[in-house]
Amino acid sequence: MAAQANKILRLFYDLVAVRSDTCTPMERDIERFIYDWFVALSYFQKNPHLVGCEPVADDPLDRVVVWALVLGKGAKTLVLVNHHDAVLPTDYGSLVSYAFDPPALAEQMRKIELPDDLQRDLESGDWIFGRGTADMKAGAAIQMALTAEFSEKTDFDGNLLFLSVPGEEYMSIGMLNSVALMEKLQQDHDLDYQLLIDSETHQRGEDRSGVIYEGSAGKLLALVYVRGKTAHVGNVFAGFNPLLLLSEIILQTELNTDFCDVVEHEVAPPPTWMFMGDRQTQYESSVPSAAVGCLSVISQHSQPSRIASQLIRLIDTACQNVTRKIEQQQAVYNSKGITTEQVAAWDVQIRYFAEIFESAAKQFGQAFRDDYHNTRQAIGRRIDENRESIHTGSYALIEKVLSYIPDLSPTVVLAFLPPYYPNAANWNYPNLPEAVASLSEAIDSLSREKWGQRYKKLNCYMQISDMSFASFHEKGDAVSTIGPNMPFWDKYYGSVFTQERTLSMPVINIGSWGKDLHKFGERVYRPDLEERTYAIMKHAVQHVLEAK
Predict the structure, then answer these.
(1) What are the residue ranges of CATH 3.30.70.360 in the chain?
(2) 218-421 — its CATH code?
(3) pLDDT tens digits, 431-488
(4) pTM, to two decimals
(5) How far is the C-alpha of 60 from the C-alpha of 24, rounded, in Å?
(6) Other C-beta atoms within 10 Å of 16: how many?
(7) Cα-Cα-Cα-Cα dihedral sign, residues 378, 383, 389, 394
């Protein structure tokens, strides 16, 4: 076991040392490292057709999914998934040059004042610090080592497919491109996918129990665009301030627990706003013409159509509250002086993006469609070249459509932004194989026996993961609800959701204990990395593949 622990640790340090900032050409460096590492193994020298690099479609960075398939006996197959990109290390400040060298980083951290929890973990020696250590090169190292061990077996039940994907930190672009690859390998090698194992780190509560997740939360990012009516600030009642309405929409939805899905004792977090602002490009002495905001909604089982309907109802409530407030305040304003201005009676339109698009297309036909297409193509190129974000590009496309709508009354447009993550959970499988259904219990039993460490099962990993794209139970609802209302749907999701899919498998996350992901104190628990998680994952693979 000591030899295996040393092997994992060396591989882990090598992976961390290869900087792989997400959405940069640096991702290609670690892809080459992982591919070369597998190609050097004896099994893949004898079977070069079972290892490869699958290009990410239409990717300006030319990233790839690195895959390796170890074939044993029979069709039963487990999929091991990890992501090799890591968030940027800007949070390390003056220590950024040490962020990819854990021993050197630890030495530098000992020279500075740290929060108590970081100081304790640093002094304990039980934690390894650095960018990508927890998220998720620990998981990648363990999966690579496990795949290598199975490649040395001359006779074992089942098959093991390893996938290392890029761009997880940016819309899971790599996993989206793995769907077709998994289906192709399934057909070429007659694979029967039993389970997908992800290896994101987990967090522990006060009882210090390890956590196994048998699902991953869904995420829907709603874009709310409010068009008002501009007016000089000296005559505000002649206009309609979109910031007022957007603020009321935020009050109706922020932390609204009506959106919180509950499964057994697990509660999804309430929605929260990621951004809000007006669309002014410079200072003007006038009410803004438009405001926009983005709301993140996490779900365990709610379908997109249900979430969208909830949002529309709350937007309608907000509109009523705001128009009533304006009427009341203008009446009071009039009573304070000699003004005889008529009290405004605003009628705010609430529309899905698809509705305004179809309205413009109906009135202006091909001329509108061509203009929209050309605008979208130009914005798409700027996005690919990192000269514009998907968010601002989506705002611009909504404004392009609204410019064709003759009705200039205040309007709220509900649209959706990438990323979109479907719910993925094992409760979607009523006839789950016994070996999969009992896996969390088997892991807990093993861990208690070997290390006196409890593991508990949770139904949903709430922090979003690549597991979302292992099955497509809500495919139809996503296509009908999100597709027409996401301006860049076909750029990222169209081919995945609209094509006929054969892929569907249960999921589980088995990972080491980690802390402070995406932060300066990012770290992974050394005993898990070196021994425990590897042993647990190996046990899980054997438990499923060897089941009769």
Answers:
(1) 218-421
(2) 3.30.70.360
(3) 899 999 999 999 999 999 999 999 999 999 999 999 999 987 667 889 999 999 999 9
(4) 0.94
(5) 10
(6) 26
(7) positive
